[in-house]
Amino acid sequence: MFNRLMITLTSVLLFSTTPFSAARAETITLRVLGQPSGSGLIAQQKEKPFFEALAEKTGLDIKVEYLPVDVAGIPDTDGLRILKSGLFDIVSIRGPQVSRDEPSVLGLDLVGLNTSFEAGRKHIDAFSGYVGARLESQFNAKLLGVWPAGPQVIFCKPEVKGLSDLKGMKVRVGDQSAANFVAKLGATGISMPFGEVQQSLSRGVVDCAITGPASANSGGWPEAATTVLPVALQLAVNGYAINLNSWAKFTPEQQTKLAGAINELNADIWAFSKELYEDAMRCNTGQPPCERGKPYKLIEAAVSEADLKTVAAAVGEVSLPTWAKQCNAVAPDCEAEWKKSVGVELGL
User: Fold this and answer.
1) 239 pairs with which residues across the strands?
2) Phi and psi (nearest 5°) for 346?
3) Where would one find the signal peptide in this protein (predicted)?
């Protein structure tokens, strides 16, 4: 009798909790690893608010847990490994930082390749399909779009008038492509976390450093520098990717909604990045209007035709040959695919 009663009660409890459990199972949790909290206004005003409002924007039954990479205590160089592991479902990929794990990413933004937003759109669109295929095969991930932090320019503590003045100096660089470029100029490229640069400039640990004007402004670099040389070397390409197992949790219709929303974010960041660059250049050099940053009074060195030619020539002379060896070592078709897409655009 007791056994029959227990069986009956158990059956009732299971029946009564089944709808509740099914309802909970429909909610998909997306853990998002974002850009560093102190990396600038793109992360603060675009990325973070977007993901926090993603459920409302898409109408999907999702719960989003957004965490900046530095708050999570994860090196940003590990972005693709984290994505592959499934520890996070979506990762805001920092292109230069993850390029050691997947060199093809660097092919989107070699020094001298993207010297303007217009050039960047063209070249990134041409090669992102190949990069996406690599992420899928090597990291079980789907690329959901690519965006630029903005033109990367040079900030120096000593006053400089052009690229030739960098000879003999120590320059903080963001990736190997930039390191190879400054080496060609006779300078020494030094890898250093963004948060350490301002103090390093102040103390003379480095003479110059490369980043976007908005990032430099938010990091206080103009407090330690005297000059900005606004010759664009790269666009500092970043992007979003989702683990394929996480992607498979959604129906095709839901996937379309999610991908569409992130496409809108990418487009929004492209436009915002250009606005930030122009505003930050004014802020850093004390020119009104300065609407989003802190005003400083850096000297803006004039960009010469010789410097523009040096940067443009860097693709064929420095960036491409060095990168191609690295990329071909892990993907034998890498250079060939780049030349068939981006190379055709450049006439190489």
Assistant:
1) 93, 146
2) -90, -10
3) 1-22
Say whether pLDDT at 263 is over 80: yes
Rounded mean pLDDT of 96-119?
94
What burial letters (b/e) apply to 148-185, b meaning 16+ CB within 10 Å? bbbbbbbbbbeebebbebbeebbbbbbbbbbbbbbebb
Structure tokens at 41: 């206004």
At residue 118, the pLDDT reads 95
The structure tokens listed for 300 are: 């803006």
Asked if residue 112 lies in contact with residue 313, where contact means CB atoms within 8 angstroms, the answer is yes
pLDDT above 90 (res 240): yes
Residue 20 above 60 pLDDT? no
Strand order in the sheet with 227-229: 188-191, 170-173, 208-211, 153-156, 227-229, 299-300
The pTM score is 0.87
Q: The dihedral of CA 308, 197, 40, 130: what is its sign?
A: positive
Exposure string over 280-290, b if 16+ CB within 10 A, otherwise e: bbbbbbeeeeb
